[in-house]
Design brief:
Elements: H1 8-31, H2 36-63, H3 72-81, H4 88-100, H5 111-137
Helix pairs in contact: 1-2, 1-5, 2-5, 3-4, 4-5
Amino acid sequence: MKTLPQSCEQCLEQFSIALEDLKIHVDRAKKIELNESQSRELIIEFEVAHELALKVISKFFQKMGKGPFSGSRDATAEAFHAELIDDGKAWLDLVIDRIKYNPVYALDSQKDFLERIKNKYIHLFEKFEETMGKKLEE
C-alpha cells in the first residue's frame, strides 16, 4: 500500500512533538545532574528534533521547487538565506556539533555538547518552530 508524501505542515507538526519531548529532557537536565543514560536520552531527543527540523526545511523548499540538498549544511545555509532561521552561524555550529558527537567517546567529553543543547540549541529550535509556523500561515 502506498502512502501519501507528508506535507510541510505535517512535518512541522512532527517536529513540534519532538521539540516538546526535547524540552522535557532539557528541563530535567537543568534541574538535576544527568546520569549517563539520561544524557544519552537528551542527545537522542536533540538528534531527532534536528532531523525533523531538516525534514521541515526540505519539504518547505521542495514545495517551492528548490532542492534537494547535498547535506544538512547546505540545507541550513539555504534556510538562513530564505529567513527560515535567523542565526545561521549557530545553526552551522549545531550541525558541526552533531557531526563531531560520537557516542563512543566518554560522556565527560560530551559535557560541552550537552550544555549547548540545554542553553543554546533548544532556543534555536523554538525560534525555528515559531518562524515556520508563521511562514506556513502566509
